[in-house]
Amino acid sequence: MYVFLPAAPHVRLLRLLRDQGPVSRAELGDRLELSRPRLLAEVERLVAAELIVEAGMAASRGGRRSTLVELDPRLRFAAVDLGATSIDVELTNGRLEPIAAYREPADIRSGPRATLQRVNDLLAKARIDGVYDRLNGVGIGVPGPVSFRDGVPVSPPIMPGWDRYPVRELLTREYGCPAVVDNDVNIMAIGERHGGVAHSVDDFLFVKIGTGVGCGIHLAGGVFRGVDGCAGDIGHIQVEAHGPACSCGNTGCLEALFGGAALARDAMAAARSGESPALAARLGSSTTTTLTARDVADGAAEGDITCIRLIRDGGRRVGSVLATLVSFANPSMIVIGGGLANLGHVLLAEIRSVVYRRSLPLATGNLPVVLSELGSRAGVTGAAVLASDAVFEQAS
């Protein structure tokens, strides 16, 4: 059994203030089940650590009014979501409310030095813009397997040059604060749990369908990463024995058959063969030399049969993998996110149909399969949660 140990009292206190806002000392004692002397000692220590401050008087509960406590308004967390083709950076306050956001295209294959330099440049711009004087914590997600314990990517298929690169160590040294590194789909799951459709749901699967495919497994109130950090790597489950070659070196993987890169490949083939008039017209325009998932979505919206088939085929393959996971893990929700979630109802309906048809009836009797509520912000939201947790846990 995978057991998530309860957090220390001071961590629970800081998370409560992060998630709920100012709370009176009296209510803190009740919620955390701490004696008054113990609570006062914890508060005094966290004030000295510049993590919390007093925030005036609470409303009377019938006796002497208690003092409100809140996170120090000067707290700043940097949240970074590295995708295969983009960099998203968000700066937040202690309550994880966004203060500034930056996004730019990037190629993860350019290597860690070039990519992390762009991250540093964006954070430097935020500092010049007056967003922060110093960072208290940094959270970053990368599109590949990660050793969460060591803070390094491990043999990531689409990230040449990143294997065992000391991402956490370099960020910690650069900014003089705790840093945490995780897989991109894990941070999306954490983000959706914190502020999205899965808020307060303890057992769910977050499926990212972007350039690749991955799954964040949220069980018993926490992310299940597995022994080495690669749990949920469903993009490399084989679905067709004689399918196309995958970036991982195997053939017929889910990611090789349906993902941003695979869908673009199939769209180009359909356009060049004339099978899809909508895609052929787009490719033949003077401004387009390549096709993307967006072109397929637009073609499907216009009623192009081939575009609709490409989306349904992808949904069927994703659904067949998820059906197995549903029968195995019995989650209470499945959340679909990532860039290809924008393919819309056709994709979602096909995934639902296959999951409900192929999973055990007991596991699907009350199983919503829904789109991410946070969309493109799921990753940075989760990275901010991880950054804040890292800071809170070090305040011992």
Describe the structure in your own words.
The structure is a single chain. The protein is an alpha/beta fold. The protein has 14 helices and 15 strands. The strands form four sheets. A five-stranded mixed beta sheet has the order 6-5-4-7-10. It has a five-stranded mixed beta sheet with strand order 13-12-11-14-15, sandwiched between helices. A three-stranded antiparallel beta sheet has the order 1-3-2. Belongs to the ROK (NagC/XylR) family.
Question: Could you list some keywords that capture this structure?
Answer:
Nucleotidyltransferase, domain 5, alpha/beta, Arc Repressor Mutant, subunit A, five-stranded mixed β-sheet, 396 residues, globular, 15 strands, 3 domains
In short:
The protein has 396 residues and is α/β, with parallel strands linked by helices. It is 42% helix and 18% strand.
What is the topology?
Layout: H1 9-20, E1 23-24, H2 25-32, H3 36-48, E2 52-57, E3 67-71, E4 77-82, E5 86-92, E6 98-105, H4 112-128, E7 137-142, E8 146-147, E9 152-153, H5 167-175, E10 179-183, H6 184-195, E11 204-209, E12 213-219, E13 222-223, H7 254-257, H8 260-273, H9 277-284, H10 293-301, H11 305-329, E14 334-337, H12 345-358, H13 361-364, E15 369-371, H14 378-394
Parallel strand pairs: 4-7, 7-10, 11-14, 14-15
Antiparallel strand pairs: 1-3, 2-3, 4-5, 5-6, 8-9, 11-12, 12-13
